[in-house]
Amino acid sequence: MKTARTRTVSRILATALMASALTGCSLMELTRDCDGTEARVREVGALGILDSRPDRATVTRGAEEDAPHCFADSGDVVVSTTRTYAFPGTRAEVAAHYRAAARQDGWRPDPEAEPGELSFAKGDMYLWVDFMSTGYGLTVVSYE
């Protein structure tokens, strides 16, 4: 004979399994983590586009976020890295440089980029160029 507590737990589990089946979401996906992404972290950190820069651009030192890393959040596993450059020139110079360098390296303009956003895609990776008052930053993201 089932107790009320057992029936309640059974209903909760059945509801969770039904919801995951109906939404296409697996409970296992929600527990994904960065195990096994070490090679991908190294690969993303070694991308040549990260070291490409216009003349007069200099690497900014000391930023901890520059190291390639993996993070997992709500089942999404993301490998990411950034590079930050100081640059005395214009945004137009930076944009022209990365449009040419990205194309040469096999990146294509991101079809889902917002107007005015400088964004590229290559396979399952995305490259963003973000402007700051003293330069710009590159961010590469790979969704695993």
What's the gist of this structure?
The chain folds into two domains: 1-29; 32-143. It contains three helices and seven strands, in the order H-H-E-E-E-H-E-E-E-E. It has helices at residues 4-23, 38-45, 91-104, and strands at residues 58-59, 69-73, 76-86, 108-109, 118-122, 125-132, 135-143.
Task: Describe the overall structure.
The protein has 144 residues and is α+β, with helices and mostly antiparallel strands. It folds into two domains: 1-29; 32-143. It contains three helices and seven strands. Strands 1, 2, 3, 4, 5, 6 and 7 form a seven-stranded antiparallel beta sheet that branches. The protein is globular and about 40 Å long. Residues 1-30 have low confidence and may be disordered.
How do the helices and strands line up, and which of them pair or pack?
Layout: H1 4-23, H2 38-45, E1 58-59, E2 69-73, E3 76-86, H3 91-104, E4 108-109, E5 118-122, E6 125-132, E7 135-143
Uncertain regions spanning at least 5 consecutive residues: 1-30
User: Hey, roughly how much beta strand do the residues contain?
Assistant: 25-35%
What's the total number of strands? 7
Shape: globular
Total number of domains = 2
Estimate the mean pLDDT confidence.
82
Tally of alpha and pi helices: 3
Salient structural properties:
144 residues, alpha+beta, seven-stranded antiparallel beta sheet, 7 strands, 29% strand, globular, Lipoprotein
